[in-house]
Amino acid sequence: MPSDFTSRQQPLRVSIDELRKTFSGKVIEHILNPRNMGEFQAAGGIGRASISCGDAMQICLKVRNDRILDISFMTDGCGPVIACGSALTELVKGKTISEAMAVDEDEIMASLDGLPDSETHCATLAVSALKQALVDYLALKREPWKRMYRQIDPFSSNR
Ligand code: FES
Fold it and tell me: Which is the closest atom of ligand 1 to the Cα of 53?
């Protein structure tokens, strides 16, 4: 009879073995150790997007001289979208705004060694949130006074 410890570990091992049948090692690694997850207190651009499955993602940017110094993501979505958000932050950090605008689903999926067809919309969600954050950064750059309205946004707790 397995010890308590062994019997508790078994379901996790089985589920990771199941994941390996469907996802690449890189996807699983990003799911288990997501990079840059969280949000910034004073982000230079914030983007939020949702998709038909009902999941959402938020991206926060720190930008200086049109170069992305830092980026974070949050999501309430599935494992693959965690992997996509995590991979996206690694792809985008250090890029200029225009270089980041060119990042697409294919680049995210390539960096993850692919996703099953049924999960490609997870990469689409990550790209949509990034584009919203970039648009937000450009809007604030053009009209910095809009930041004042963010500080009194009753729906935002962390801007
Ligand atoms: Fe909704 Fe992955 S299933 S984003």
Answer: 1
CA-proximal residue: ligand 1, atom 3 (nearest): 78
* Cβ of 80 less than 6 Å from ligand 1: yes
Give the single-character DSSP code of 96.
B
Q: Smallest Cα–Cα separation from 66: which of 49, 51, 45?
A: 45
Chain Cα centroid distance, residue 76: 10
* Cβ–ligand 1 contact at 122 (below 6 Å): yes
Tell me, in angstroms, the distance from the centre of ligand 1 to residue 128's CA: 13
Is 78 known to be catalytic?
A: no
Question: Cβ(46)–Cβ(58) under 8 Å?
Answer: yes
Q: What is the pTM assigned to this prediction? A: 0.85
Mean pLDDT in the chain?
88
The answer to whether 85 touches 37, Cβ cutoff 8 Å, is yes
Contact present, 88 and 95 (Cβ < 8 Å): no
Over range 38-49, report the average pLDDT.
90
What tens digit of pLDDT does each residue of 73-127 get?
Answer: 999 999 999 999 999 999 999 999 999 999 999 999 999 999 999 999 999 999 9
User: Do the beta carbons of residue 136 and residue 47 sit within 8 Å?
Assistant: yes
Q: From the CA of 156, how far away is ligand 1's center (Å)?
A: 24
